Every structure is written in structure tokens, then in C-alpha cells.
Amino acid sequence: PVGVDRATLQGVVIADEPLKLPPLEVNIALNQGRIAGFVASAADPERGNLQLKAQQESGSWQLALTAQKLLVPLGLGVDFSDVTMNARLFADRLELAEFGGTLFSGNFRGSGVLNWQGGWQLVAKCYVTRLDASQLVPGWIEHGYAAGEGELSAAARLPSALFGSGVGKGRFILDKGGRLAGIDLDRILHGRGIGHQFRFDSITGDFRIEGKRAEFSDIVIKEKTLSSRGKLSVAADQSVSGRFKIDVHTPSMRLTAGFGV
């Protein structure tokens, strides 16, 4: 009999997977009738090229993913670009040794574990640098770049519902200066300024995101002559509420005031 060492599948669709991958072409390498590895690829007109390489090893599969654009369902509703991932697949879990990409013109990196024993659970550690804050929170920051780190956890019975159940929490910082939009602290305090933006030196704070709701606490805004501390809540309908305390320190003035948003 003639042995078959390669096979090709066209138009492969993975049902009920959360990444919404396009139809794939899968080239399979066979060894004595068993799958030894494969390369799955797609050329999507909207998202560009995607390739997933898999190689069987003892007790696991080594995976490597590259994608020009990929909709990662973290509740952000935007594509990651220049995505890379290196992982090891076991019978009961996927160990994400490294994943990364570009998000809001900045860099996104992380690692984690996806487990599917008794349901689906994801735990990951994420880091971001130089995110364009005007894209991340349009209407609130006109200019500025954010960095931070956080943890993402999620649990669900089905993989399609996993990311919708996620909770993200961590800490962020904008430490290279920037401009707030829609608010001018100088005008609130002194009646001066242009009334629709405020230049800051840095902003730091903690965040917690669950579903479409976000909580920002321990926010500290610093500028040469004043500092402000407070918290913000963003509801599912994108309405914002919060409270801030402002402290002004100049050679001729010490003032404390509060305002709500």
C-alpha cells in the first residue's frame, strides 16, 4: 500500500470558538497514519493573513500563532494587530507562554493558562506600554500615552461565553504628560483657562473592568501647581460618574476644592 504523509483541508471552520477565526486551509503532516503537525492559514480580506503552526511533542503540542489582525474578545470591541503567540497544548489546558500584539497603537504583552476541566477558566497576566489614551478613552483624554499591568480572569461553561465573563483589574499610569478633554481644572478653580482641556504631568490609578462596566479608583492627577485625587465609574451605557478633590499649592495660595462629574 502507498503511504500518505500529507493531507490538505480547505474551508475549515472551528465551531463555537471565541476568536471568530475565518475559514482555514489546513496542511497536515502525517507519520504512520497519525497527525505529527499541521499549518493552518487564512487570508482574510478585512483582517489580513493568519497562520497557526502546530508540532506534536511528547504529551503535548507546541503552537505558534501569527496574525495581522485578530479580534480578541476582551470586551474592547477592537482588533489587535501584529499578533504573536507561543503556547503549549495539553489534554486539559493551554499554557500561553507568551502572547502579544499592538493595541491602540501601543504594545500589549502577557502570559497565562486556559483550563477546561469542569468548565472553562482563564487566568492571565498582561502588560501594556505606550497605548494611545485618546483612542482608549475618546472624549476624556485628548493626548497622552498609557502604560500599566493587570490580571484577567474568566470562567464559563462554554468557550464562546468565556470572555464575556471576564474580570480585569490592575494599575495604569500616564507619566509623559498630556491633555484632558472636556474639563479644565484651572477654569474650575480660578475662572481662567480655555474651558475644554487641561494639561497634566501625570495620571495614575487602579482599574477594574467587568463586562461593560469599568471602575477607576485611587486616581491621582498631577500638574505643577495642583493635584487631584478621586474615582470614576463608567456604566454599561457609557455614562460616567465620579468625584474628585483638588489641592492647589503655589507660593501665594493653598486651596482645596471638590467637584463631581
Low-confidence stretches: none
Question: Distance between termini?
Answer: 77 Å
The major pleated sheet works out as: 16 strands, antiparallel
How do the strands of the widest beta sheet line up side by side? 1-2-3-4-5-6-7-8-9-11-12-15-16-17-18-19
Report mean pLDDT, rounded to a whole number.
84
Strand tally = 19
Task: Quickly give the structural class.
Answer: mainly beta
Q: Secondary-structure element sequence?
A: EEEEEEEEEHEEEEHEEEEEE
Q: Roughly what fraction of the amino acids lie in strands? A: over 45%
Shape: elongated
Radius of gyration: 24 Å
Count of helical stretches: 2
Kindly state the percentage of residues in helix: under 10%
Written overview of the protein:
With 261 residues, the chain is mainly β. The chain is 4% helix and 66% strand. It has helices spanning 133-136, 185-190, and strands at 6-12, 24-31, 34-44, 48-57, 60-71, 79-89, 93-103, 106-115, 120-132, 141-143, 145-156, 167-174, 178-181, 197-200, 202-210, 213-222, 226-234, 240-250, 253-260. A 16-stranded antiparallel sheet has the order 1-2-3-4-5-6-7-8-9-11-12-15-16-17-18-19. A three-stranded antiparallel sheet has the order 10-13-14. It starts with 5 loop residues before the first strand and ends with a strand.
